[in-house]
Amino acid sequence: MKSGFVAVVGRTSVGKSTLVNRIVGKKVSITATTPHTTRSTIRGIYNGDDAQIVLVDTPGIHRPSGPLSGHLNLTAAAAVKDSPDAVMLVVDGHAGIGPGDIRIAKTLPKDSVVVINKIDRMNKTQIAAQLMLSFERLGFQDNAEYVPVSATSGQGIDELREVLKSKLDDGPAWFDVEETSDVSEDFYIAELIREQVLKLARDELPSSIACQIKEWEPTYMLCEIIVERDSQKPIILGKGGRNLGNIRRAVQPKLPQGTKLELVVSVNKNWKRNPDRLGYF
Questions:
Q1: Which end of the chain has fewer CB atoms < 10 Å from its terminal CB, N or C?
Q2: What is the dihedral of CA 157, 162, 168, 174, to 10 degrees?
């Protein structure tokens, strides 16, 4: 069988995590419209009859504006270095190829797979134009592959899987065929909670939020939602704690049956600038 690791890289908000979820066939990475949604390398595992593709979802690459964003860029770069089998560059076809895409492409192997995402928002002429621009501007070799897809609708995903398989050698399955991700269950649930908080906060404080599971017993789970400033707490709480209730109801069906979820909001001033905590969040 074909098996190997594929690093998934690109600018922020081009749909990398949605694409990984679609290829795997199950939600393994949280998604949101805000930058900095993905903060760690998360491995999503596609298990087919003839292949196991381990997709390494990485934080979006961008110009760093502080320790957190610089750390995320380093995390993405390390994933490319540590994924020797193939690299997949995801670009937003609807927005078009920009300087950020070109800058990232210069750091990648010349036989990378280029995925033009969000074609559900484009017509055939626009798709053809972006394929041509990708070939002309990104500077890859002729043996690079260019695949138009829609991570939202699933269009082109089967073709993309076949292209990724062609980049892999014969080898063993690196993970059990029943596994779809390598993250721990408590990390995954904390991420699900953060996803709901991001939907709630939208553009108000996305990069100021972190979540971690503090306690987990058979029928009880405590998750701490961390913000940077006292003024941010009311945004998360909502009037009378209404927002916490909405978050809890959204996440509860994904927890083990009978588990009571408690959410608390705490302030850790400037946690993003504390190097000791960047690796965790």
A1: N
A2: 60
